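Morning!

This is the sequence you dropped in the shared folder:
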Amino acid sequence: MNDRDRSKLSFLNFLDHFTRMYGNIFSQASSVDINYNHQRVLRAFWWMAIIVLMQSFSGHLLATLVLDSNSQINDLRSLDRSGVLPGVEKGSVAHSKFKSGEDLHSTNLYSKMLQQQNKSLLPVKQLISDASLDLVKAGKFAVILDTLAVKYALSNRYNKGRECGFHVAAQTFHRNILVMVLRKGLAKSTYHQINSRISFLVESNILSKSINNKVKEYTKCLGTHVNKSYLTVEDLRGIFILLCSGLLLSFIIFLGERIHERLNTS
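The structure's back. Tokens below.
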């Protein structure tokens, strides 16, 4: 056999091996007999990796398809029907709103609060704590608080690297009215000076800029920015470890077979 025929035969063998490997990627069994143990080990680990990879993606797809798009709570009505325990700041405006019972849903929710006051009627520090937010993440608790406090809690949680993926309801439960309490009997000039300085803080954006710097990361802790709908290389790290283990074991067996052949031929 001349060099040209050998080169052609080598190229055809390469195409044959490439075709079989390409077929194995798409779960097609090989019809070629395996003569060496290292090939059997390598293909066994390869098939295990393929099976794990297929199950990972099919399971992830199934979990994505069965998610209930209507499970998010956006108002008091859906909160009442969900059975989730609401939490409000004790003695706050929100507390008074539920206590007054303006509608049936507010009444039902306040009854739940009274049954578990030590878990539902809490100070702000406990409502925005990691323990409370962990319960919210688990779907067992709903925090009803002013927007600024919620933004600060989510921004702080993101900066600490804690688990995110929260949802902020669309309904506005009450208006926040900011007031300044002063001593009675102050001169009118003092009131005018305070009002002018407050107006300066608001109009110059000094106050809003300071607040935004504290809560600027809160959107990164919302579900639309954090929840993953895909698998990353980090999620599939075990598959690569399995393949590398198979390659290493196959290589060791290959060396053993080569040494055994040389000992038998010598």
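Headline: The chain has 13 helices and three strands.

More detail when I'm at my desk.
O.
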